[in-house]
């Protein structure tokens, strides 16, 4: 079951402390898009998330989007934010995360994977050897196939786990 458990669990990306990550040897962030940086059906992130991305860069972190989305949708989004990207990443395969770390010029152990889904972002990030950070989904408005997975994610995220491993507020 450890493969499904995030190293860190927070409410939103805004709760992530960059200095704490850097103290853990993290130099880059591999970011999911939908329900992590923006609501699933929105076209762009809110201003506070844009500011968070700028703050991450100002803290010396390098950033790359790793998404299962198609290039026609993900590339314009990523490039509009000034980010590298890996499209059609085949998450939870570790391949996309390894490609993301390579695009940033980092070893996978120097990266943190940030996403809202246990069975793609956390499973794949853990399998690749990255630090994993689970965020709560931004919106409950998401495709039905994701809604089907959410109850199983709740089984993994027991209250005991969250209290024991939560790093940030």
Write a compact overview of the structure shown:
The protein contains 7 helices and 6 strands, in the order βαβαβαβαβαβαα. The protein has 169 residues and is of the alpha/beta class.
SSE map:
Layout: E1 8-10, H1 18-23, E2 28-31, H2 47-58, E3 62-66, H3 71-80, E4 84-86, H4 95-104, E5 111-115, H5 118-128, E6 131-135, H6 144-156, H7 159-165
Would you write up a description of this structure?
- The chain is α/β, with parallel strands linked by helices and 169 residues long.
- The protein has one domain: 3-Layer(aba) Sandwich (Rossmann fold), CATH 3.40.50.1000.
- 41% of the residues lie in helices and 15% in strands.
- The protein has helices spanning 18-23, 47-58, 71-80, 95-104, 118-128, 144-156, 159-165, and strands at 8-10, 28-31, 62-66, 84-86, 111-115, 131-135.
- α5 links the parallel β5 (111-115) and β6.
Uncertain spans:
none
Order of helices and strands: EHEHEHEHEHEHH
CATH fold-type name: Rossmann fold
Q: Can you identify the CATH class?
A: Alpha Beta
Structural class, from secondary structure content?
Answer: alpha/beta
Mean pLDDT: 87
**Overall 3D form:** globular
Based on the coordinates given, report the CATH architecture. Answer: 3-Layer(aba) Sandwich
Number of helices: 7
Distance between the termini: 24 Å
- Counting DSSP E segments of at least 2 residues, the number of strands comes to 6
């Amino acid at each position: 079951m450890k493969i499904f458990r995030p190293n860190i669990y927070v409410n939103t990306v805004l709760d992530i402390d960059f200095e704490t990550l850097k103290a853990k040897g993290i130099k880059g962030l591999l970011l999911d898009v939908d329900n992590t940086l923006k609501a699933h059906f929105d076209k762009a992130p809110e201003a506070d998330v844009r500011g968070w991305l700028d703050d991450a860069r100002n803290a010396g972190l390098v950033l790359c989007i790793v998404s299962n989305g198609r290039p026609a949708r993900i590339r314009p989004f990523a490039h509009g934010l000034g980010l590298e990207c890996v499209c059609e990443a085949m998450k939870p395969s570790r391949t996309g995360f390894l490609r993301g770390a390579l695009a940033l010029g980092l070893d996978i152990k120097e990266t943190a994977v940030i996403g809202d889904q246990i069975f793609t972002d956390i499973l794949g990030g853990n399998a690749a050897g990255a630090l994993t950070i689970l965020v709560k989904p931004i919106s409950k408005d998401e495709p039905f196939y994701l809604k089907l997975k959410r109850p199983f994610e709740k089984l993994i995220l027991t209250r005991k786990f969250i209290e024991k491993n939560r790093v940030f507020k």
